[in-house]
Amino acid sequence: YGFILTLKKITGLAENWNSLTLQHPGAKDPVKITSEKGISNCNVICEFKRSYISEDDANTDTKIRLMNKKKKVAKVHLNLDALRKHVDSMGKEVAYNVTLENTFQLNIEFLFSIDYFVVEKDQSNPVLKREESFDSLASAESDQTERVVALKLGPGSLGASFANSIVPPTILSFLPLPDGSQGPLVGKVVEKSELIRFNSYDTTMWGLNRLKECLQQTKSDEFRELVFLLPRSEVDPGKDKQLQQEEEVVQQQEKEEQKEE
Helix 80-90 vs helix 241-260: angle between axes, to the nearest 10 degrees? Predict the structure, then answer.
């Protein structure tokens, strides 16, 4: 497979780190990036291949290192096979936020997106193959219009649980309202739908905390406009592992709360 990894933004850096270098699998030499007030809007695109000939290939992590004055200050290991399967289950390029390992007790976070395409063994023109792959991706994106649902909701709870670590905010499950009735999203969207707009805000790069803040700020508004992107299929036999794990956690928490009551 050929992978296209876009390193969008790094936050939580030390404020005196103004000039850094980035080591990633798509470049032989480190890439220079700049940082201001602990934030780097690097927007670096990495392109690389993985053979997947053996089982070990599929389990190989991809490493990204952050260097300051030729010293490694942070790193992250990405499981490409898990990411590839997640892209398949979500039906499009997916954005993630990961925390980098470091010895400075800093909360360094990396926002990146990833997509992939199939590389044939005997391809004579890899550039052409990549362009064909992008054509198919563009064609796939064209059906998004049919999967967009715009809702105008009043104040109060949405009656939905969102995944903790997936960008954009993605519905994990539906929850009953305090009075026992169904929430306003039931019957209009489905689990794994992604919130792509909140009022005038583009939410495609939002995490769960940003969504919570916005919901809190607008809780007394007369109405709120939410736009969701439905999954390609409401039935997903290969349900994403991360969503499944988070769903199990939520269910366990609900059971514990019921025991306490």
Answer: 80
Name, in order, each residue with C-beta under 8 angstroms of 103's C-beta and a sequence gap of 6 or more. none
Beta-sheet strand order (sheet of 44-49) = 44-49, 2-11, 109-117, 94-99, 166-167
Per-residue pLDDT of the chain (261 residues; tens, 9 = 90+): 788 888 889 999 999 999 999 988 777 788 899 999 999 998 888 887 776 655 555 556 788 889 998 888 898 888 888 888 877 777 655 677 788 888 888 999 888 888 877 766 544 444 434 444 444 444 444 445 567 899 999 888 899 999 876 778 899 899 999 898 999 999 999 998 989 889 888 887 787 888 888 888 887 888 899 999 888 654 344 444 555 555 566 566 656 655 555
